[in-house]
């Protein structure tokens, strides 16, 4: 498919200003939350990305009207006439995203049943949904797996419960929140994920009338209420997209002002950026990231759940680490297969060796299990343009960064995948002076 190829002429630092809007990992979930209300909700700072379009389509299939609000990037979601959707229509969204699984609790509350098609999302590990279904069964749901998807019912309604997650999974924590707020009685969730996007979802639900507390020990307590209203909310900015542009500035020896980036949600990233040798300056409306000249430093990096170093920051930063002097060690502890993208970087001239062992300070779930989840990056290396096929969202953006930093021309195939999570990225690249063109 030639129309899905971006030609990148590398070797020029990217310089200028771009804007990030609401977080991809919050906005679609806040849209699902609107389904729980008895009144319309207004969500602001909504980016035009594919995950938003998928959820919009699924909501509309279930009778929620979704229209643009007064300000750009505002959605008004009206759940007054929620209705059952045709299974074949829902199934048309199979494989498009991971968000459909979060419809379970809200649909069980509103309709008493739900159908969830096969899920999509990035191929960065097995990505099972066992925690989600265990959680839903704890609330009293029954789940029947058929060839086309999962059929759920709640014959006796949903009741609050005590749950401990085996791992602080983001999606499973959201599943509990979206189900517990209207369940009968109290729910206690321990070992919960506490990512900033989850806190923002809690803010959304609290605005709707929910009662939710978040303790410092990863325990979330929810007291179910009979009814929720609508909300008006401005989505928190996308800290993952902001970090991607920051890494692009570093790898290309450039300078990017990311309008909308927020320091509070990026503390851990900013510390690592500074250790590598990147420079940044925070002001009231954004952060400027740049390469200050001189050599970059090799570092030891371990991904983790929040407040650790976010796994989605890892792939773009690894490209910058190919330009650092010495041996960097990267231990990926959230997804077992999130380092596969490095083989293409090696074809471009990088020296990255993968290991099955846990090379970080802390042994993780993937040690001794045959997963190549640690890397040693030896640098600096000069990258050369190449033919690249995008493997997943963040890996894909990382290939763009590598192509921009490389000498010569690259052809990046499967470029549309990046639209899943990066709004208008081609316009942004052009605004930063990148030499890119569609094949
Ligand atoms: N896990 C299970 N069973 C489950 C659920 C999760 O074993 O039922 C495991 C996963 O396989 C993984 C770990 O738990 O090893 C963490 O998964 P989590 O549930 O936290 O991830 P997610 O909710 O599916 C979201 C983001 C990801 C981000 C992770 C971690 C969305 C739509 N996706 O995924 O974002 O990496 O949390 O913060 O919110 C991305 O933006 O590129 C991306 C992949």
TrEMBL record:
UniProt keyword annotations, A-Z: Cell cycle, Cell division, Cell shape, Cell wall biogenesis/degradation, Cytoplasm, Peptidoglycan synthesis, Pyruvate, Transferase
Broad class of the protein's primary localization: cytoplasm
Native species: Streptomyces hainanensis
Gene3D superfamilies xref list: Enolpyruvate transferase domain
PANTHER family, A to Z: UDP-N-ACETYLGLUCOSAMINE 1-CARBOXYVINYLTRANSFERASE
Family in the record: Belongs to the EPSP synthase family. MurA subfamily.
Reactions mediated catalytically: phosphoenolpyruvate + UDP-N-acetyl-alpha-D-glucosamine = UDP-N-acetyl-3-O-(1-carboxyvinyl)-alpha-D-glucosamine + phosphate
GO CC annotations, alphabetized: cytoplasm
Role summary: Cell wall formation. Adds enolpyruvyl to UDP-N-acetylglucosamine.
Protein known as: UDP-N-acetylglucosamine 1-carboxyvinyltransferase
Chain sites annotated for binding UDP-N-acetyl-alpha-D-glucosamine: 98, 312, 334
Metabolic or biological pathway: Cell wall biogenesis; peptidoglycan biosynthesis
Biological process, per Gene Ontology: cell division; cell wall organization; peptidoglycan biosynthetic process; regulation of cell shape; UDP-N-acetylgalactosamine biosynthetic process
Residues the record marks as active site: 122
InterPro entries (alphabetical): Enolpyruvate_Tfrase_dom, Enolpyruvate_Tfrase_sf, MurA_subfamily, RNA3'P_cycl/enolpyr_Trfase_a/b, UDP_GlcNAc_COvinyl_MurA
Modified residues (2-(S-cysteinyl)pyruvic acid O-phosphothioketal): 122
């Amino acid at each position: 498919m030639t129309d899905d190829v971006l030609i990148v002429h590398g070797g020029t630092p990217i310089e200028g200003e771009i804007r990030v809007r609401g977080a991809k990992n919050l906005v679609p979930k806040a849209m699902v939350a609107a389904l729980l209300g008895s009144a319309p909700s207004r969500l602001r700072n909504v980016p035009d990305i594919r995950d938003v379009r998928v959820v919009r389509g699924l909501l509309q299939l279930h009778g929620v009207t979704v229209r643009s609000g007064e300000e750009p990037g505002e959605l008004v979601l009206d759940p007054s006439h929620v209705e059952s959707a045709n299974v074949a229509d829902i199934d048309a969204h199979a494989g498009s995203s991971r968000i459909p699984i979060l419809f379970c609790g809200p649909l069980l509350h509103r309709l008493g049943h739900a159908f969830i098609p096969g899920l999509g999302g990035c191929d960065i590990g097995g990505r099972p949904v066992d925690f989600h279904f265990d959680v839903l069964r704890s609330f009293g749901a029954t789940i029947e797996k058929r060839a086309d998807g999962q059929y759920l019912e709640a014959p006796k309604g949903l009741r609050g419960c005590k749950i401990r997650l085996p791992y602080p999974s983001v999606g499973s924590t959201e599943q509990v929140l979206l189900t517990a707020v209207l369940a009968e009685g109290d729910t206690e969730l321990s070992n919960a994920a506490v990512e900033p996007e989850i806190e923002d979802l809690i803010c959304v639900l609290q605005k709707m009338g929910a009662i939710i507390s978040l303790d410092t020990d990863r325990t979330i307590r929810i007291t179910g209420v009979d009814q929720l209203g609508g909300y008006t909310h401005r989505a928190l900015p996308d800290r993952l997209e902001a970090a991607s542009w920051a890494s692009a500035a570093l790898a290309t020896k450039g300078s990017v002002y990311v309008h909308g980036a927020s320091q509070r949600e990026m503390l851990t990233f900013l510390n690592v950026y500074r250790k590598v040798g990147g420079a940044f300056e925070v002001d009231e409306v954004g952060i400027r990231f740049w390469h200050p000249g001189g050599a970059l430093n090799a570092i030891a990096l371990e991904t983790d759940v929040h407040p650790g170093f976010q796994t989605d920051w890892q792939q773009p930063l690894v490209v910058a680490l190919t330009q650092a002097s010495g041996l960097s060690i990267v231990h990926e502890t959230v997804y077992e297969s999130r380092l596969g993208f490095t083989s293409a970087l090696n074809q471009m001239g990088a020296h990255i060796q993968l290991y099955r062992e846990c090379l970080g300070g802390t042994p993780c779930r993937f040690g001794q299990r045959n997963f190549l989840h640690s890397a040693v990056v030896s640098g600096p290396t000069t990258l050369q343009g190449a033919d690249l096929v995008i493997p997943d969202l963040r890996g894909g953006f990382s290939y763009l960064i590598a192509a921009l930093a490389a000498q010569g021309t690259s052809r990046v195939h499967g470029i549309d995948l990046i639209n899943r999570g990066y709004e208008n990225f081609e316009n942004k690249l052009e605004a930063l002076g990148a030499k890119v063109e569609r094949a």
